[in-house]
Design brief:
The complex is a heterodimer of chains A (66) and B (302). Chain A has helices spanning 15-36, 45-62; strands at 4-7, 10-13. With 66 residues, chain A is an alpha+beta fold. Chain A has one domain. In chain B, helix 2 (83-115) packs antiparallel against helix 3. The chains are: A alpha+beta (66), B alpha+beta (302).
C-alpha cells in the first residue's frame, strides 16, 4: 500500500483514511456484537471495544509499514 | 449452576484478555514499523544541470533554441556576434605574415653573414644575425599560435551543447551582452536524473547500498523503482556557525524534543513508468525495501 494518498487534492498519510474506515467498521461490529449478546461474555466492554478498534486499525496499517 | 457461572466468568476474562493482548501486540508492531522502517516523504528528483557559459564574450546575435527544447550534443545553442572575431583573425594572420617575412629576411641575412669570411663580417655580427634569426622565428611561431587562438575564438563564438539534454528556463535574448565565462543558460542533462531521499539520521542504519527503493511521485499513481546508490557522508553542522567575534554560535537546547537531522541518500532510478515525464525538482515519497529485513550491519566502516 502507498505511504500517502491523495483525497480531494489533499495529500495525507494513508493512516488517516484507514483510521476513519476502521472507526466505521468498528461501529458496525459493535452493533452486531451488542445485538448478538457477545458483550455478556466480555469482562470489560469498554476495554474490549478499544482493543477491537486498535486491531482493526493496526492490521491494515501494517501492510504499509512492513 | 455455580460452576457454570464460574466458567462464564473465566471465559469473559479470557476473551477480553486475548483481544487486548492482540491489540497491544499489533499496536507495538505498528509503532515499531512506523518509527523504524526506512521511508521518507522528502524525496527530490534531481538532475545534472550544466551551466552553459560562452568561452568568449560579445553580443548575442542569434538564439538557436527555444525554451525547454531538447538538444543533442554539439548542437548550436546561441551565436555570439562573429564580426569582431573575423577581424581578429585577419589581424592575427597579417601579423603572422609580417613575422614570417621578418623571419625569412633575418634567416637570409644570417646565412649570408655566416658564409662571409671573417674579414668582412666580425664574428660578433655573425652571432647577432644568428640570434636575430632565432628571435624572428620564435616571434613567427608566436604569431602562428595567435592565429590559432583567433580561429578558436571564432569557433567558440558559436556556443554549442556540451551534451544531450533540455534547455531550461531560457532567459537569454538576442542582443544581450554575455561575458566570457558568465553562465547564461541551463542545460538539464538527459538520463542524469536521480532521487535524493532525505532520511532521518536514526533510519540510516536500515539503509544499505544496493537496497531496492520505491519512489511514489507526489499526487500521482506513478511509482518509480530504483536502488540506493550512495549515502551522503556529511551535512552542515548547524551549531558551528561563528559570530562576529569568531565565537561559536550554539543554539539553546530543547532537552526533551530532539530534532533529527536528515541525511541525503542518493537513489539511482532504474525504472520509470511509461507515460511519466521526470522533471528535476519533483517531490516523491521514498521507501526502501531492505535487502536484509532484520538488523544488518550498519553501513560498514568505509
Amino acid at each position: 500500500m502507498p505511504l500517502d494518498i491523495t483525497l480531494f487534492g489533499i495529500q495525507m498519510p494513508t493512516l488517516l483514511p484507514i483510521f476513519v474506515i476502521a472507526a466505521v467498521v468498528q461501529i458496525l461490529i459493535d452493533r452486531l456484537m451488542a445485538d448478538g449478546g457477545l458483550y455478556n461474555y466480555v469482562w470489560h466492554p469498554g476495554l474490549f471495544r478499544t482493543a477491537i478498534f486498535v486491531c482493526l486499525f493496526t492490521i491494515p496499517c501494517l501492510f504499509i509499514y512492513r | 449452576m455455580n460452576k457454570n457461572i464460574k466458567w462464564v466468568k473465566l471465559l469473559r476474562f479470557a476473551i477480553t484478555f486475548a483481544v487486548v493482548s492482540l491489540a497491544v501486540f499489533f499496536g507495538l508492531m505498528l509503532w515499531d514499523n512506523y518509527m523504524n522502517s526506512a521511508w521518507t516523504r522528502d524525496g527530490r528528483v534531481r538532475a545534472d544541470v550544466v551551466m552553459v557559459a560562452p568561452d568568449v564574450g560579445g553580443l548575442v546575435s542569434r538564439i538557436a533554441v527555444v525554451d525547454n527544447q531538447f538538444v543533442h550534443k554539439g548542437e548550436l545553442l546561441y551565436q555570439i556576434d562573429e564580426e569582431r572575431f573575423h577581424h581578429a583573425l585577419t589581424e592575427a594572420q597579417a601579423i603572422a605574415q609580417t613575422r614570417k617575412a621578418e623571419y625569412e629576411m633575418k634567416k637570409h641575412r644570417s646565412s649570408r653573414r655566416s658564409s662571409a669570411d671573417a674579414e668582412t663580417v666580425s664574428s660578433e655580427e655573425r652571432d647577432d644575425a644568428l640570434y636575430d634569426a632565432q628571435i624572428a622565428r620564435a616571434k613567427y611561431e608566436e604569431a602562428l599560435a595567435q592565429v590559432e587562438t583567433a580561429k578558436l575564438d571564432l569557433e567558440r563564438s558559436a556556443v554549442r551543447a556540451p551534451n544531450d539534454g533540455w534547455v531550461s528556463n531560457l532567459l537569454l535574448r538576442k542582443g544581450d551582452y554575455v561575458q566570457a565565462g558568465e553562465k547564461r543558460m541551463a542545460l538539464v542533462t538527459e538520463g542524469s536524473f536521480w532521487v535524493y531521499g532525505y532520511f532521518e539520521e536514526h533510519k540510516l542504519s536500515l539503509i544499505h547500498i544496493g537496497d531496492k527503493a520505491q519512489m511514489k511521485m507526489l499526487g500521482t499513481k506513478y511509482v518509480l523503482k530504483g536502488h540506493v546508490e550512495s549515502i551522503a557522508r556529511g551535512i552542515s553542522d548547524r551549531d558551528n556557525v561563528t559570530d562576529g567575534r569568531l565565537l561559536a554560535n550554539v543554539n539553546p537546547i530543547f532537552t526533551w524534543v530532539r530534532l533529527a537531522q536528515r541525511i541525503p541518500v542518493r537513489i539511482h532510478i532504474d525504472e520509470i513508468p511509461e507515460g511519466f515525464n521526470l522533471s528535476a525538482g519533483m517531490t516523491c515519497s521514498v521507501s526502501i525495501v531492505p535487502a536484509h529485513p532484520i538488523k544488518g550491519e550498519p553501513l560498514g566502516n568505509r
